[in-house]
Amino acid sequence: MRPAEVLACHDCDLLQLGPAVSPGSTLRCRRCHAELRRGRSNGPEYALAFTLAAVVLLIISNVSPIVGLSVNGHVVRTTLAGSVRVLYIDGMWPLALLVGITTIVMPALQTLSMCWLLVPLRFGRVPAYAVEAFRLFRLARPWGMTEVLILGLLVALVKLAHIAKVVPETALWSFVVLMLLLAAASASFDPHELWARIARARHAERPLKLRPSTPGSATLTAAGCGLVLCHECGLLVPARHEKGHVRDCPRCGSPLHSRKPLSLSRTWAYLLAATVLYVPANVLPVMDTSSLFGAQKDTIMSGVVYLWISGSWPLAALVFIASIVVPMLKIIGLGYLTISTQLGSRWLPEQRTRIYRVVELVGRWSMLDIYVITMLVALVQFQALATIKAGPAAIAFGAVVVLTLFAALSFDPRLMWDAAETDHVRARRS
Ligand SMILES: [Zn+2]
Ligand SMILES: [Zn+2]
């Protein structure tokens, strides 16, 4: 059995002694209840098996057609790359770029970097360029959105079924399996365990000595002890500054920050830009349909109304929540967290940390409508009968989703706990 180790919480920075976790159990922070460690038996081995299977499915999903649409014996089929190409040809290159990156490039980078790290480790060797591969994995992880794509495909199929006969093809099923494999792989892949194994292979870890450096501090935080937590591999490192910046993590190479730099100003910048673009995203047409019966321009809301009227009310509710409610709640929620942190509020930091976690978790689902539009644009290309093109609001909406994701990534929840902490120190000094 492994001895207890000193852990710092990634959400509130509290230092605590963590006992070794048994498989299936979870160790949570005793102040903010964030998950610190989860016991996984044979985690890296399972992760490798799921990832290798995901690579195969990724290839099948990208080379075979997803769905076919048949009108009067004329069938239009599309692959994922094909639908990205149609967007590009229609002049919607920012949208094509966004869809291509989130559904093709990032899932591929994520699985390949995981393979690169896990295969050598399986044979007891330290992977070459582990730092670079891990950096790639870290970059790709929040931006691969296969599960949102599946939901988008489902909504698109229901919409298309009203127009013509829909023929599900190979990639539709392989994408569903791929989604499950990616979820299983990331559930069993624990970066902390990965780096602990690499470190064991290198025999390179020294125990930490704790010396509180903030006088009068009531609770022991990593920053208070002159330590920095690496968010990626969980290593606690003494904060040594080089030219005003804390150096990179010596174990995994990720940039180290005691607190994310310029966290609040960056969050504000992204939030304000997202708020401005939220207006055209909802007012301008998101889709232009031209058919024998004339031209029609749809906004996000009129798309929801159409689904509701045609009887698909669960999907109407889904699109309404993902496209209208989630972005709005994200902007309001993050705005509230940023203002309260800036004002040094000590009010319910635990609940505010929980709000942050929810915002971070649900943000990606707003991409749903972008994927629905992509599929409709790619498939409804019957020159004489009907064509669908993406409208300007689609680009504004894509930008809102990306900006709110960046805003959530820039916000540092530990700042909320710092306010409570500083107040406590002040009270004790006076
Ligand atoms: Zn915590
Ligand atoms: Zn690290």
UniProtKB/TrEMBL annotation:
The chain crosses the membrane at residues 46-71, 91-119, 140-164, 170-189, 268-287, 307-340, 361-384, 390-411. It is found in: Cell inner membrane. Pfam families: PqiA. Keywords: Cell inner membrane, Cell membrane, Membrane, Transmembrane, Transmembrane helix. Belongs to the PqiA family. It comes from Paraburkholderia kirstenboschensis. It is a multi-pass membrane protein. This is Paraquat-inducible protein A.
